[in-house]
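Researcher: We're teaching a course module on how sequence relates to structure. For the next exercise, students receive a sequence and then see the predicted structure as tokens, so they can try to spot secondary structure elements on their own. Here is the exercise chain.
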Amino acid sequence: MTLSTYKETSHEPYLSHSLCGDSNITAYHILSTPSQDEPTVLMDISDSRTGRVANHRGAYVHLIDELPRLIGFGEPVSNSFFPVRYDILMPYLVLFFGSILLMQIQTRVTPWWAALIVWGVVNLVNLLQAVGFLSRVATGNREINHLLGYGIVALGIPSILTVFAFVRVRAGLRQLIGPLVFLFFLVFMIFVEYIWQVEFRSPVRNDILVPYLVLFFGSILLMGLPMFRMNRQLWLVTVATTVLLLVSMVFAMYMGVG
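Model: And here is the predicted structure for the students to work with:
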């Protein structure tokens, strides 16, 4: 078995080390370098008897420089795959497949934690407003609902963080539009309910109520929808809290305090 390490400095491979062995199986490690500090592993295993070649492209391996030390260049290695050298095989596999896993996490974590925050925000909004509707039925007024509104306003802080995170990783409009619409709703709600303190529900003022409801339910829809493609179970949680919100709203309207 022959193990060789190549480094791509131009288009010509550079042979840096070679291990022993005459075997029908030849294995190569080739480092192609898209950047100086992020080499890519390419493993080719070919059988000289059949001429078959199997390629496997791995992820970025930042610890690849440690492999020569781990396997010990210059030391004799068995010229067949058996018996297995676990002192070589185990750290080799841990580094190789661990690097693939780490690369997958790295490419997902920033948008993913932001998506989880958006998911948490939309469900908290649903629950807080559902409690607000039910409190109107229990008390006959909107005092508790008004206080819960401060909690909804506070959710604007993590929403702003998600907007910055999505912009930083250049996420699509599908990820951005939900938090943005929610922030527009919060600004509108703060002015209407806390600064101007305008009563627009009874008697109904459609010039305020219509954009209020469009922004509110539009933000819930747009924040909840992206999770449908990312995690169906989490999306179903959002469906459940949205149904709870709608049922509590209809119940409050039926009781005359909606």
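Model: If you want an answer key for the exercise: Residues 86-139 form the longest helix (54 residues). The chain is about 60% helix and 15% strand.
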